[in-house]
């Protein structure tokens, strides 16, 4: 103990428009379990991607010193050769291949011309035993559960001769028992001299396994807590994670009257579309009033998007049960068209993937969800369409040369405005905004907040799903907190704080 | 007001420019033969089926680069049915109706698998390609069936009289054809100017005056030139009227109607289109059913022109149509392309075919050249997209 195995010195990584990492330092000693904690988007994963060579040397500044030598990784293979192996949050296993095939994918045993299958499976079995799996390595991945899949990932890492194991939220898709088994495995490896870096949101797990905890916030290292010296209680960690100053980044709303309940869901349960035994939303009840902004806070994967999309005409999930009331009357929305007709709009978090047709101009995107209002006998009145697009361009201050411009050529903030325009044109009463300010700059954020204020001033209801706590706190009249598919808290916006929301999530 | 700059204009009309250059090359290569009246006339009527099929194929490709491999077989199948019906003395209009109906049904059959069961279009239509080729043989009993019904031949551009008669009996030039050309130019010019005036009155973005009038003049000259050339032979081939009709109708559908808009949207981003409350399955269904309809129409034109139906007709027609669309600027990933583009693509292929034929290039090398042109067009598409990023 005591020998530094890895030191990352003043790492700075910029993406166009964003500084994802700003002078980050990380020091890991041999044989310890080092936890990285921080909010979504704080830069934890980016840092690990720099370390493993996913972002090649040259795309960042700063030094990586591993085992006393400065490393310049160009690709993942380079870091793996040194024994640095990263296991990503999303499992990267191929379902219709066997455990053994998956384990040695890209590292095939035998010669280039002929894979030695006997050796492959013998080796694979050996590593499976090390992680405590009794399955044959010939079993197909699709036939074993998620917990075991995660263990296969670890075995795969061991097969690469890992000296430093990086686990990005290894337990996010596991249940309690599987999580505990995995953590115990890490502790066992530690005794055998393995060094691990674990990224996790689950602070109880972090306190359980970690020797040291480094807190990252807004792309900078805040502090490193040492288990033997410092207090590493959950509250202490949370304080480090969220302790930032709130400034006047949110426009005030004046005199918006909050009216009757516009939409209410009761006991809403949704199952995963592929794994139909998995509950993604579990017995959620919530409501929103006219003129109200309701924030839904939670971590990624808490089920917020799934809740919103399942309400929006069953755009997500199977076996949806529960009741949905609009203006006091129960409705059953068959599909998305039906939802739009009932004046609900869902503005996606993934504007490029699910929101906009990037190869089409602004005007076409603006009118897509309500094209029929511009039509007579299915023929589009293109004069009217142009006027509508111009109107929203003025209203939302979208910066573009003309509304004939392809949306793909706009900046993120302006794309977001086009997306909002599209749904405002559908004339909804309830707007569900999913991460409305993700990946856009501060100025554009402020403008989006102003638009939200205008919407509620006009008597609309806005549900804002956001992973950025300051935004939820700054904008919401009321806040719901979701975690693992359940509503775990509700508080008035004025009374909520980052600490109270975080502890709601982490202690649920 | 923002005027469109020259670079963008050039980019937009790359394939038109390529067409002009290629015509120029063949003009020199054939010593001017390629632009003789008779050859221009043949170019259009010989390739009538490509224009029609390319229009339908474009709609499929718009939905996401999806193609229909069965059209060649459907052309043959539908043509065979019509030929057999007419050879048995059935009413010609009834036969035409049945042919179109069969086309729609065939299209709907394939569209159902593609749209509602999620069979990949490549597979669903490959199956159709085999099945309908086989059925053509069954219908025709393995033989060629000739068509002697003159009404059918005259209307759909086959036989000796497949031209619009000259009502003025011009001597060396077909006066009806020239007049039609003049009228077409007049209508085109008036409509364009009217649209431009109303657009600028409402403050919409318009192209610069220079490029507007340049386009107007060039296109008018092209129409007049074409009319003059056609008038020098036998006049307007009836198949040309059908092509013009199809192109105008489908250009309207793709640019002005909701279903047209949805075709582009689905190809551009299917997920976003779905989340906008649009039934994307219906969009696929429309594209493939419509392809069946147009394949049937191409079948009518094909058997009329040959005055017979044979079990080998329509082979590789699907490839001509697909090639025309991609050469004409449709994206292999869907979401972009236009009917006029597909027509330009079809023309370009037709000119290359005919030019090489006149020059006496070996048929095998003709295929090589066609293949390379297609590849070049798609490479161009991919590269110009990469540039943007």
From TrEMBL, chain A:
One GO MF term: ATP hydrolysis activity
Residue ranges of domain ABC transporter in the record: 6-241, 263-505
InterPro entries reported for this sequence: AAA+_ATPase (IPR003593), ABC_carbohydrate_import_ATPase (IPR050107), ABC_transporter-like_ATP-bd (IPR003439), ABC_transporter-like_CS (IPR017871), L-arabinose_ABC_transporter (IPR053466), P-loop_NTPase (IPR027417)
UniProt xrefs under PROSITE patterns: ABC_TRANSPORTER_1, ABC_TRANSPORTER_2
Location within or outside the cell: Cell membrane
A Pfam short name: ABC_tran
Protein topology in the membrane: Peripheral membrane protein
Entry's Gene Ontology cellular component terms: plasma membrane
Keywords, alphabetical: ATP-binding, Cell membrane, Membrane, Nucleotide-binding, Repeat, Sugar transport, Translocase, Transport
Chief location category: membrane
PANTHER family for this protein: CARBOHYDRATE TRANSPORT ATP-BINDING PROTEIN MG119-RELATED (PTHR43790), XYLOSE IMPORT ATP-BINDING PROTEIN XYLG (PTHR43790:SF1)
Protein name (database record): Putative multiple sugar transport system ATP-binding protein
Organism name: Pseudobutyrivibrio ruminis
TrEMBL record, chain B:
Keywords for the protein's UniProt record, in alphabetical order: Cell inner membrane, Cell membrane, Membrane, Sugar transport, Transmembrane, Transmembrane helix, Transport
Any one Gene Ontology molecular-function term assigned to this protein's record: transmembrane transporter activity
The keyword Membrane belongs to this UniProt entry's keyword annotation: yes
Listed GO CC annotations: plasma membrane
TM ranges: 12-36, 48-78, 90-109, 139-160, 172-191, 212-230, 236-253, 283-304
Membrane topology: Multi-pass membrane protein
UniProt keyword Nucleotide-binding, yes or no: no
Taxonomic superkingdom: Bacteria
Family matches, as Pfam families: BPD_transp_2
InterPro entries: ABC_transp_permease
Compartments, record wording: Cell membrane
Major place of residence: membrane
Function of the protein: Part of the binding-protein-dependent transport system for D-xylose. Probably responsible for the translocation of the substrate across the membrane.
Protein name stated in the entry: Xylose transport system permease protein XylH
Lineage, highest ranks first: Bacteria, Bacillati, Bacillota, Clostridia, Lachnospirales
């Amino acid at each position: 103990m005591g020998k530094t195995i890895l030191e990352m010195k003043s790492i700075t990584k910029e993406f166009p428009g964003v500084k994802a990492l700003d002078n980050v330092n990380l020091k890991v000693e041999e044989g310890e379990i080092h936890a990285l904690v921080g909010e979504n988007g704080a830069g934890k994963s980016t840092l690990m991607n720099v370390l493993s060579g996913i972002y090649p040397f040259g795309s960042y500044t700063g030094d990586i010193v591993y085992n006393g030598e400065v490393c310049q990784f160009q690709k993942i293979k380079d870091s793996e050769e040194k024994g640095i192996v990263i296991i990503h949050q999303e499992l990267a296993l191929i379902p219709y291949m066997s455990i053994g095939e998956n384990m040695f994918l890209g590292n095939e045993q035998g010669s280039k011309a002929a894979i030695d299958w006997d050796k492959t499976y013998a080796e694979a079995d050996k590593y499976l035993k090390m992680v405590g799996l009794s399955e044959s390595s010939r079993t197909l991945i699709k036939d074993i559960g998620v917990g075991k899949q995660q263990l296969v990932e670890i075995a795969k890492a061991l097969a690469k001769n890992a000296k430093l194991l990086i686990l990005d939220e290894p337990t996010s898709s596991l249940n309690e028992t599987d999580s505990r088994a995995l953590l115990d495995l890490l502790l066992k490896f530690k005794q055998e001299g393995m060094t691990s870096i674990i990224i996790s949101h689950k602070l109880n797990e972090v306190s359980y396994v970690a020797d040291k905890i480094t807190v990252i916030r807004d792309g900078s290292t805040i502090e490193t807590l040492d288990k033997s010296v410092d207090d590493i209680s959950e509250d202490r960690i949370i304080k480090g994670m969220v302790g930032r100053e709130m400034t006047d980044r949110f426009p005030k709303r004046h005199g918006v009257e909050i009216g009757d309940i516009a939409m209410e869901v009761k006991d809403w349960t949704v199952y995963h579309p592929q794994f139909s035994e998995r509950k993604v939303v579990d017995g959620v009840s919530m409501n929103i009033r006219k003129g109200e902004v309701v924030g839904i806070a939670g971590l990624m994967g808490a089920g917020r998007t799934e809740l919103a999309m399942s309400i929006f005409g069953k755009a997500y999930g199977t076996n949806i049960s529960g009741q949905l009331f609009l203006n006091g009357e129960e409705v059953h929305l068959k599909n998305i068209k039906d939802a739009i007709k009932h004046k609900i709009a869902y503005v996606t978090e993934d504007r490029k993937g699910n929101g906009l047709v990037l190869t089409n101009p602004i005007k076409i995107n603006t009118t897509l969800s309500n094209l029929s209002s511009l039509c007579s006998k299915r023929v589009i009145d293109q004069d009217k369409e142009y006027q509508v697009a111009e109107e929203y361009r003025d209203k939302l201050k979208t910066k573009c040369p003309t509304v004939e411009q392809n949306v793909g050529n706009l900046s993120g903030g302006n794309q977001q405005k086009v997306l909002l325009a599209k749904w405002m044109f559908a004339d909804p009463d309830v707007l569900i905004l999913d991460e409305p300010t993700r990946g856009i700059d501060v100025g554009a954020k402020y403008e989006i907040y102003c638009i939200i204020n205008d919407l509620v001033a006009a008597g609309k209801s806005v549900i804002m799903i956001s992973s950025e706590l300051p935004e939820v706190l700054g904008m919401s009249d009321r806040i719901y907190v979701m975690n693992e598919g359940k509503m775990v808290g509700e508080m008035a916006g004025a009374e909520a704080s980052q600490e109270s929301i975080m502890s709601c999530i982490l202690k649920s | 007001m923002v005027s469109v700059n020259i670079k963008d204009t050039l980019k937009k009309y790359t394939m038109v420019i390529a067409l002009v250059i290629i015509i120029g090359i063949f003009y020199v290569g054939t010593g001017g033969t390629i632009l003789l009246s008779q050859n221009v006339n043949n170019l259009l009527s010989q390739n009538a089926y490509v224009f029609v099929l390319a229009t339908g194929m474009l709609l499929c490709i718009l939905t996401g680069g999806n193609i229909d491999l069965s059209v060649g077989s459907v052309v043959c199948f539908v043509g065979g049915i019509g030929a057999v019906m007419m050879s048995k003395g059935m009413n010609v209009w009834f036969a035409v109706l049945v042919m179109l109906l069969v086309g729609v049904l065939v299209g709907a059959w394939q569209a159902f698998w593609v749209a509602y069961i999620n069979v990949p279009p490549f597979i669903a239509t490959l199956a159709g390609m085999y099945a309908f080729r086989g059925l053509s043989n069954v219908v025709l009993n393995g033989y060629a069936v000739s068509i002697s019904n003159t009404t059918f031949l005259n209307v759909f551009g086959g036989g000796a009289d497949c031209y619009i008669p000259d009502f003025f009996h011009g001597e060396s030039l077909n006066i009806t054809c020239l007049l039609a050309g003049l009228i077409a130019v007049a209508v085109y010019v008036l409509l364009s100017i009217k649209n431009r005036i109303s657009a600028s009155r409402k403050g919409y973005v318009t192209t610069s005056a220079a490029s507007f009038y340049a386009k107007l003049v060039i296109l008018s000259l092209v129409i007049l030139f074409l009319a003059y050339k056609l008038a020098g032979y036998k006049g307007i081939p009836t198949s040309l009227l059908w092509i013009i009709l199809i192109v105008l109708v489908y250009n309207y559908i793709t640019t002005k109607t909701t279903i047209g808009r949805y075709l582009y949207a689905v190809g551009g981003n299917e997920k976003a289109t779905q989340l906008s409350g649009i039934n994307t399955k219906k969009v696929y269904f429309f594209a493939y059913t419509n392809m069946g309809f147009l394949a049937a129409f191409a079948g009518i034109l094909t058997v009329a022109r040959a005055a017979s139906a044979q079990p080998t007709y329509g082979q590789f027609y699907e490839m001509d149509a697909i090639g025309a669309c991609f050469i004409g600027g449709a994206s292999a990933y869907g979401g972009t392309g236009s009917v006029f583009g597909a027509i330009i693509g079809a023309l370009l292929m037709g000119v290359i075919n005919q030019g090489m034929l006149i020059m006496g290039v070996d048929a095998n090398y003709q295929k090589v050249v066609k293949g390379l042109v297609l590849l070049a067009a798609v490479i161009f598409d991919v590269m110009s997209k990469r540039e943007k990023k």
